[in-house]
Amino acid sequence: MTQIRAKITGTGKFLPDHVMTNHDLEKLVDTNDEWIQTRTGIVERRILKDPDKGTSNLATEAAKKALEDADVDAADIDAIIVATVTPDYFFPATACLVQKRIGAKKAFAFDLSAACSGFLYALTTGGNMIESGRAKKVLVIGADKMSSILNYEDRTTCILFGDGGGAVVLEATEEEAGIIDYVHYTEGDEDCALYMPGGGSKHPATAETVAQGLHYLRQDGRAIFKKAIHGMADVSLEIMERNDLTSDDVAWLVPHQANLRIIDATANRMGVSKDKVMINISHYGNTTSGTIPLCLDDWKDQLNKGDNLVLSAFGGGLTWGSIYLKWAI
Ligand code: ACO
After folding, report:
1. pLDDT of residue 1
2. Is 199 exposed, middle or buried (0-12, 13-18, 19+ CB in 10 A)?
3. How is the chain split into domains, by residue range?
């Protein structure tokens, strides 16, 4: 029996217009452009300023562009998955709002929460739906309005993140292309090294939780850095070894954009030279679920049919993983 695979047939992105530079942050917290650039590689990030807009707006615009790029009608989409940790609401899911706005009448839609690995988990989930034969076309979106959960008085976190989103259309193919393999891991973060304490069922929102700043992202940067630098490199190497890929076989490393030093360490471990690594952290910062689809869209004109891509991420949860993807268009 022929194996059905899921290939990416279109990509799209949306970034808010407002640019927040490191110099802008110097006015808010005790930091400086040189520290931020040296420690993270970030120069500026985008911020969604409109108070009436949320992650669904980023996701919807990215989705429309991906559908146009793939030349697929929204009415033909079978499922929509939005990876995000900053949904508009707890419910309805952000994916349901996108479904309505793009007119994807027959699609069922849901959100997936896996922090910075969210897009990878969503891509394999969508891919598995297609491989099972249950779905023919799936819209996979990664979007986050990180500014909505940042404390702009905390220099250790507010400098790292930005807002943005990207989307891909997955379609069934009988070619040896698309998602070939994946490796995903989870290690429950009981120590809360990276989390948002408030707003969930444990600490529902009260005047007290707001006063205590429990609705902001908190991170033990050093602890996460140590785990991320090993986790992302190890899993990237693992996917290469499982698929007998040498560094020459890899056309592009598509890494989650959390810190340039983590990206460099991953590329070094894989033996992949820097000219084959997608890096846009300098302009967007860490957009959490958005980073990998943003890269794919930024680089799509340089991708050729048959290119081997390794997508890798590490993030809150803790979650991490890699996908081996053969570019199919
Ligand atoms: N400006 C100036 N100084 C700062 C700033 C700042 N913005 N932030 C911290 N510092 C200071 C610290 O207070 C510390 O000072 P001290 O030595 O006097 O105590 C010094 O700089 C060094 O701090 P470190 O935390 O050791 O700096 P480090 O080199 O580890 O960089 C960073 C910090 C960038 C946060 C890094 O640890 C990192 O990238 N961590 C991983 C982030 C990540 O990958 N997150 C996962 C994805 S996010 C998600 O899933 C939602």
Report:
1. 75
2. middle
3. 5-176, 180-326
